[in-house]
Amino acid sequence: MILCAVAVLSLSSAMAQEVHVGLLGGVGNDPEATFKKLHDSGFKYCQIGYGLNWGEDMAKTLKQLSKKYDVKISTMMYCTPGGRWNFLEGPTTIGLVPPVNRIKYMDTYKKAVDFCAMADIPAMHSHFGFIPEEPNCELYASFIECMRELCQYAKDKGVMVFCETGQETATTLIRAIHDIGTGNIFVNCDVANMVLYGKGNPVDAVRQFGPLLKELHAKDGKYSTNPYYLGRETKIPQGDVNFPELVKALKEIGFKGVMTIECELRGDNSEYVLNTKKYLEGLIEQTYGK
Q1: So what's the architecture of 7-288 in CATH?
Q2: pLDDT above 70 for 14
Q3: Is the pLDDT of residue 5 over 50?
Q4: Letter string b/e over residues 4-13, b meaning 16 or more CB atoms within 10 A of that residue's CB
Protein backbone atom coordinates (compact mmCIF):
# COMPACT_ATOMS: atom_id res chain seq x y z
CA MET A 1 0.00 0.00 0.00
CA ILE A 2 1.13 3.59 -0.57
CA LEU A 3 0.97 5.76 2.49
CA CYS A 4 -1.33 8.64 1.71
CA ALA A 5 -2.34 10.77 4.63
CA VAL A 6 -4.21 11.54 7.74
CA ALA A 7 -5.75 14.94 8.12
CA VAL A 8 -6.77 16.57 11.35
CA LEU A 9 -10.12 18.17 10.79
CA SER A 10 -10.74 21.84 11.49
CA LEU A 11 -14.29 21.50 12.76
CA SER A 12 -16.67 23.83 14.49
CA SER A 13 -17.12 22.12 17.85
CA ALA A 14 -14.69 20.84 20.47
CA MET A 15 -16.06 17.32 20.11
CA ALA A 16 -15.65 17.39 16.34
CA GLN A 17 -12.04 18.47 16.71
CA GLU A 18 -11.36 15.17 18.44
CA VAL A 19 -12.35 13.20 15.32
CA HIS A 20 -9.68 12.83 12.64
CA VAL A 21 -9.43 11.32 9.16
CA GLY A 22 -6.49 9.18 8.14
CA LEU A 23 -5.08 6.55 5.78
CA LEU A 24 -3.27 3.25 6.30
CA GLY A 25 -0.04 2.61 4.44
CA GLY A 26 3.67 1.92 4.68
CA VAL A 27 6.61 4.25 5.24
CA GLY A 28 8.43 2.90 2.18
CA ASN A 29 12.16 2.98 1.65
CA ASP A 30 12.46 6.64 2.60
CA PRO A 31 10.63 7.36 5.87
CA GLU A 32 11.92 10.94 5.93
CA ALA A 33 10.33 11.67 2.55
CA THR A 34 7.09 10.09 3.67
CA PHE A 35 6.83 12.17 6.84
CA LYS A 36 7.90 15.33 5.04
CA LYS A 37 5.18 14.81 2.45
CA LEU A 38 2.60 14.36 5.20
CA HIS A 39 3.79 17.51 6.97
CA ASP A 40 3.96 19.61 3.82
CA SER A 41 0.39 18.56 2.99
CA GLY A 42 -0.84 19.56 6.43
CA PHE A 43 -1.45 16.01 7.65
CA LYS A 44 -1.12 15.17 11.34
CA TYR A 45 -1.75 11.43 11.75
CA CYS A 46 -0.91 8.15 10.04
CA GLN A 47 -1.34 4.41 10.54
CA ILE A 48 1.51 2.20 9.32
CA GLY A 49 2.22 -1.42 8.51
CA TYR A 50 4.91 -3.27 10.48
CA GLY A 51 8.19 -4.24 8.82
CA LEU A 52 9.45 -7.60 10.06
CA ASN A 53 13.09 -6.46 10.04
CA TRP A 54 12.43 -3.34 12.09
CA GLY A 55 14.30 -2.85 15.35
CA GLU A 56 15.59 -0.12 17.65
CA ASP A 57 17.09 1.95 14.84
CA MET A 58 13.79 2.18 12.97
CA ALA A 59 11.91 2.87 16.18
CA LYS A 60 14.27 5.76 16.91
CA THR A 61 13.90 7.04 13.35
CA LEU A 62 10.11 6.99 13.47
CA LYS A 63 10.03 8.79 16.81
CA GLN A 64 12.36 11.48 15.50
CA LEU A 65 10.40 11.94 12.28
CA SER A 66 7.09 11.97 14.10
CA LYS A 67 8.33 14.79 16.33
CA LYS A 68 10.15 16.67 13.55
CA TYR A 69 7.18 16.71 11.19
CA ASP A 70 4.42 16.71 13.82
CA VAL A 71 2.81 13.54 12.43
CA LYS A 72 1.46 11.02 14.94
CA ILE A 73 1.34 7.27 14.26
CA SER A 74 -1.99 6.22 15.73
CA THR A 75 -1.53 2.44 15.42
CA MET A 76 0.69 -0.12 13.72
CA MET A 77 -0.82 -2.97 11.72
CA TYR A 78 0.64 -6.46 11.46
CA CYS A 79 -0.99 -9.44 9.75
CA THR A 80 0.56 -12.90 9.72
CA PRO A 81 1.97 -13.96 6.33
CA GLY A 82 0.40 -16.70 4.27
CA GLY A 83 -3.20 -15.75 4.99
CA ARG A 84 -5.68 -16.61 2.25
CA TRP A 85 -8.37 -13.98 2.15
CA ASN A 86 -11.34 -16.11 1.22
CA PHE A 87 -13.95 -18.27 2.93
CA LEU A 88 -12.39 -21.58 1.88
CA GLU A 89 -8.82 -21.23 3.16
CA GLY A 90 -9.01 -18.19 5.42
CA PRO A 91 -10.18 -20.03 8.55
CA THR A 92 -7.08 -22.28 8.49
CA THR A 93 -4.48 -19.68 7.46
CA ILE A 94 -5.20 -16.30 9.08
CA GLY A 95 -3.97 -15.12 12.47
CA LEU A 96 -3.90 -17.05 15.73
CA VAL A 97 -7.16 -18.98 15.43
CA PRO A 98 -5.55 -21.86 13.48
CA PRO A 99 -3.55 -23.84 16.09
CA VAL A 100 -0.86 -24.67 13.54
CA ASN A 101 0.02 -20.98 13.27
CA ARG A 102 0.29 -20.10 16.92
CA ILE A 103 3.82 -21.16 17.79
CA LYS A 104 5.43 -19.64 14.70
CA TYR A 105 3.40 -16.42 14.78
CA MET A 106 3.15 -15.63 18.50
CA ASP A 107 6.81 -14.64 18.64
CA THR A 108 6.35 -12.27 15.69
CA TYR A 109 3.30 -10.69 17.29
CA LYS A 110 5.30 -10.10 20.44
CA LYS A 111 8.10 -8.52 18.41
CA ALA A 112 5.53 -6.21 16.84
CA VAL A 113 4.36 -5.25 20.32
CA ASP A 114 7.97 -4.66 21.37
CA PHE A 115 8.40 -2.34 18.40
CA CYS A 116 5.29 -0.37 19.31
CA ALA A 117 6.71 0.12 22.79
CA MET A 118 10.09 1.21 21.42
CA ALA A 119 8.53 3.62 18.91
CA ASP A 120 5.90 5.04 21.29
CA ILE A 121 3.08 3.72 19.08
CA PRO A 122 0.06 3.22 21.35
CA ALA A 123 -1.46 0.14 19.71
CA MET A 124 -0.83 -2.86 17.47
CA HIS A 125 -3.76 -4.14 15.45
CA SER A 126 -4.32 -7.24 13.36
CA HIS A 127 -6.71 -9.74 11.84
CA PHE A 128 -6.44 -12.49 14.43
CA GLY A 129 -8.51 -14.96 12.41
CA PHE A 130 -12.00 -16.37 11.98
CA ILE A 131 -13.05 -16.43 15.65
CA PRO A 132 -15.45 -19.36 16.17
CA GLU A 133 -19.08 -18.46 16.80
CA GLU A 134 -19.45 -21.36 19.25
CA PRO A 135 -18.06 -20.20 22.62
CA ASN A 136 -17.97 -23.71 24.09
CA CYS A 137 -15.82 -25.34 21.42
CA GLU A 138 -12.19 -26.23 22.09
CA LEU A 139 -10.89 -24.06 19.25
CA TYR A 140 -12.51 -20.96 20.75
CA ALA A 141 -11.20 -21.74 24.24
CA SER A 142 -7.63 -22.31 23.05
CA PHE A 143 -7.73 -19.14 20.95
CA ILE A 144 -8.85 -17.10 23.94
CA GLU A 145 -6.01 -18.52 26.02
CA CYS A 146 -3.52 -17.67 23.27
CA MET A 147 -4.84 -14.13 22.88
CA ARG A 148 -4.83 -13.60 26.63
CA GLU A 149 -1.10 -14.39 26.64
CA LEU A 150 -0.43 -11.93 23.82
CA CYS A 151 -2.60 -9.17 25.29
CA GLN A 152 -1.08 -9.54 28.74
CA TYR A 153 2.36 -9.30 27.14
CA ALA A 154 1.27 -6.10 25.40
CA LYS A 155 -0.28 -4.74 28.58
CA ASP A 156 3.00 -5.22 30.43
CA LYS A 157 4.65 -3.17 27.66
CA GLY A 158 2.02 -0.41 27.84
CA VAL A 159 0.62 -1.26 24.39
CA MET A 160 -3.02 -1.75 23.39
CA VAL A 161 -4.17 -4.51 21.03
CA PHE A 162 -6.88 -3.75 18.45
CA CYS A 163 -8.81 -6.49 16.67
CA GLU A 164 -9.66 -5.59 13.09
CA THR A 165 -13.14 -6.66 12.12
CA GLY A 166 -14.10 -8.89 9.24
CA GLN A 167 -14.04 -12.58 9.95
CA GLU A 168 -16.66 -12.66 12.71
CA THR A 169 -19.84 -10.93 13.81
CA ALA A 170 -19.72 -8.00 16.21
CA THR A 171 -21.30 -10.16 18.92
CA THR A 172 -18.62 -12.84 18.58
CA LEU A 173 -15.79 -10.29 18.70
CA ILE A 174 -17.25 -8.54 21.75
CA ARG A 175 -17.59 -11.90 23.52
CA ALA A 176 -13.98 -12.76 22.73
CA ILE A 177 -12.74 -9.41 24.05
CA HIS A 178 -14.68 -9.91 27.25
CA ASP A 179 -13.38 -13.47 27.65
CA ILE A 180 -9.77 -12.40 27.05
CA GLY A 181 -10.33 -9.89 29.81
CA THR A 182 -6.97 -8.11 29.99
CA GLY A 183 -8.51 -4.65 29.64
CA ASN A 184 -6.17 -3.46 26.86
CA ILE A 185 -7.88 -5.12 23.88
CA PHE A 186 -10.28 -3.10 21.73
CA VAL A 187 -11.72 -2.83 18.21
CA ASN A 188 -10.42 -1.35 14.97
CA CYS A 189 -13.62 -1.58 12.91
CA ASP A 190 -13.08 -1.97 9.19
CA VAL A 191 -16.59 -1.07 8.10
CA ALA A 192 -16.17 -2.47 4.60
CA ASN A 193 -14.96 -5.79 5.95
CA MET A 194 -18.27 -6.25 7.75
CA VAL A 195 -19.83 -6.07 4.28
CA LEU A 196 -17.17 -7.99 2.33
CA TYR A 197 -17.31 -10.94 4.75
CA GLY A 198 -21.08 -10.72 5.11
CA LYS A 199 -20.86 -10.42 8.90
CA GLY A 200 -23.44 -7.71 9.41
CA ASN A 201 -24.41 -4.10 8.92
CA PRO A 202 -21.41 -1.92 9.87
CA VAL A 203 -23.65 0.82 11.27
CA ASP A 204 -25.23 -1.65 13.67
CA ALA A 205 -21.80 -3.07 14.51
CA VAL A 206 -20.52 0.38 15.49
CA ARG A 207 -23.44 0.78 17.88
CA GLN A 208 -22.72 -2.67 19.35
CA PHE A 209 -19.03 -1.99 19.85
CA GLY A 210 -19.67 1.27 21.69
CA PRO A 211 -16.70 2.21 23.88
CA LEU A 212 -14.71 -0.80 22.63
CA LEU A 213 -14.32 1.00 19.29
CA LYS A 214 -11.04 2.90 19.31
CA GLU A 215 -10.26 3.28 15.60
CA LEU A 216 -12.04 2.76 12.31
CA HIS A 217 -11.01 1.89 8.78
CA ALA A 218 -12.96 3.97 6.27
CA LYS A 219 -13.40 1.68 3.30
CA ASP A 220 -16.35 0.64 1.15
CA GLY A 221 -17.47 -2.48 -0.66
CA LYS A 222 -20.22 -4.74 -1.91
CA TYR A 223 -21.65 -7.85 -0.25
CA SER A 224 -20.44 -11.13 -1.71
CA THR A 225 -22.44 -12.82 -4.44
CA ASN A 226 -20.16 -15.88 -4.35
CA PRO A 227 -20.28 -17.93 -1.13
CA TYR A 228 -16.63 -18.95 -1.49
CA TYR A 229 -15.06 -15.50 -1.83
CA LEU A 230 -15.27 -12.08 -0.25
CA GLY A 231 -17.28 -9.24 -1.68
CA ARG A 232 -15.73 -6.55 -3.86
CA GLU A 233 -14.06 -3.41 -2.53
CA THR A 234 -15.27 -0.13 -4.03
CA LYS A 235 -14.48 3.51 -3.67
CA ILE A 236 -16.30 5.49 -0.97
CA PRO A 237 -19.31 6.02 -1.22
CA GLN A 238 -20.02 3.59 -4.08
CA GLY A 239 -20.51 0.48 -1.95
CA ASP A 240 -22.98 -0.82 0.62
CA VAL A 241 -21.61 1.09 3.64
CA ASN A 242 -23.96 3.93 4.54
CA PHE A 243 -21.39 6.53 5.57
CA PRO A 244 -23.83 9.30 6.57
CA GLU A 245 -25.55 6.89 8.97
CA LEU A 246 -22.20 5.50 10.06
CA VAL A 247 -20.96 8.91 11.17
CA LYS A 248 -24.23 9.48 13.02
CA ALA A 249 -23.68 6.18 14.85
CA LEU A 250 -20.13 7.24 15.73
CA LYS A 251 -21.48 10.41 17.31
CA GLU A 252 -24.12 8.41 19.21
CA ILE A 253 -21.47 6.24 20.88
CA GLY A 254 -19.24 9.23 21.62
CA PHE A 255 -16.46 8.15 19.28
CA LYS A 256 -13.38 10.37 19.46
CA GLY A 257 -10.56 9.05 17.36
CA VAL A 258 -9.24 8.43 13.88
CA MET A 259 -11.20 7.33 10.82
CA THR A 260 -8.37 5.87 8.76
CA ILE A 261 -8.93 5.56 5.03
CA GLU A 262 -7.76 2.18 3.75
CA CYS A 263 -7.58 1.75 -0.01
CA GLU A 264 -6.51 -1.56 -1.55
CA LEU A 265 -7.79 -0.74 -5.03
CA ARG A 266 -5.28 -1.02 -7.85
CA GLY A 267 -3.74 1.98 -9.55
CA ASP A 268 -2.96 5.52 -8.46
CA ASN A 269 -5.60 6.46 -5.91
CA SER A 270 -4.13 9.79 -4.79
CA GLU A 271 -7.01 11.86 -6.15
CA TYR A 272 -9.54 9.41 -4.73
CA VAL A 273 -7.99 9.65 -1.27
CA LEU A 274 -8.10 13.46 -1.30
CA ASN A 275 -11.71 13.43 -2.47
CA THR A 276 -12.61 10.87 0.19
CA LYS A 277 -10.93 12.92 2.88
CA LYS A 278 -13.04 15.92 1.91
CA TYR A 279 -16.17 13.77 1.79
CA LEU A 280 -15.59 12.35 5.27
CA GLU A 281 -14.63 15.74 6.67
CA GLY A 282 -17.92 17.12 5.41
CA LEU A 283 -19.92 14.30 6.98
CA ILE A 284 -18.14 14.68 10.32
CA GLU A 285 -18.50 18.45 10.39
CA GLN A 286 -22.17 18.21 9.48
CA THR A 287 -22.88 15.55 12.10
CA TYR A 288 -20.58 16.39 14.99
CA GLY A 289 -20.85 20.12 14.48
CA LYS A 290 -24.57 20.17 15.23
Answers
A1: Alpha-Beta Barrel (3.20)
A2: no
A3: no
A4: bbbbbbebee
